[in-house]
Design goal:
Length: 197
């Protein structure tokens, strides 16, 4: 409970400087995330290049490999991303690091993200996005053995700075053999909204 309140307080305190917020849902899962553009605070940082964010996912047993809801807790993460646009293209690539956690599980995955604006969509831009993060055993703590996350989504910007998204995510929280072995925390399709500020 205190973790949730703390996360909400951090999000509320920095709301005036958020780069974007997102809400993703399906029949069983609820995910909320926020990112702050560090270029708004520091003149030496180029806007839309360095982000700090947080995310929480309330997952369901129906979309996981856990046997009961008592075995699961909400998934939390704090993330850092550096990205840049590839010159003369609509491709944006980035490198990131996260600190994440769930029940008796924490890791520090490293990863890459990419976003590409499709050329035929000037009036209503359509973006194809993907991300992959991995934490080997050396970056896994508590009962964690390793972690693998991958995501893919299509984002349609229906109004300026407002997008509808359809995506797929897989959060593979692999525990040590003594803690229950490989357990996929969440594998599901979702729809959602993203708002930029």
């Amino acid at each position: 409970m205190f973790k949730k309140l703390g996360l909400l307080a951090v999000c509320a305190a920095s709301a005036f400087a958020m780069h974007n917020v997102e809400l993703n849902i399906n029949d069983k899962d609820l995910e909320f995330g926020a990112k702050v553009d560090m270029g708004q605070f520091n003149d030496t940082v180029e806007p839309d290049s360095v982000f700090v964010g947080a995310k929480v996912l309330h997952g369901s047993v129906d979309n996981s490999e856990f046997s009961s809801s008592s075995d699961m807790q909400d998934y939390y993460e704090v993330n850092f991303l550096m990205q840049r646009k590839v010159e003369a293209t609509d491709l944006v690539i980035g490198l990131g690091v996260k600190l994440n956690g769930a029940k008796n599980f924490s890791s520090v995955p490293l990863g890459a993200e990419a976003s590409y604006k499709l050329a035929f969509s000037d009036k209503m831009p359509l973006y194809v996005k993907g991300a992959i993060y991995y934490a080997p055993e050396v970056l896994s703590m508590q009962d964690a053995k390793n972690f693998l996350e991958y995501r893919a989504s299509l984002d349609l910007e229906v109004i300026k700075n407002g997008s509808v998204t359809v995506g797929y995510r897989s959060l593979d929280t692999n525990y040590t053999a003594s803690a229950g072995g490989d357990k996929n925390y969440n594998k599901s399709v979702y729809v959602g909204f993203k708002f930029g500020f």
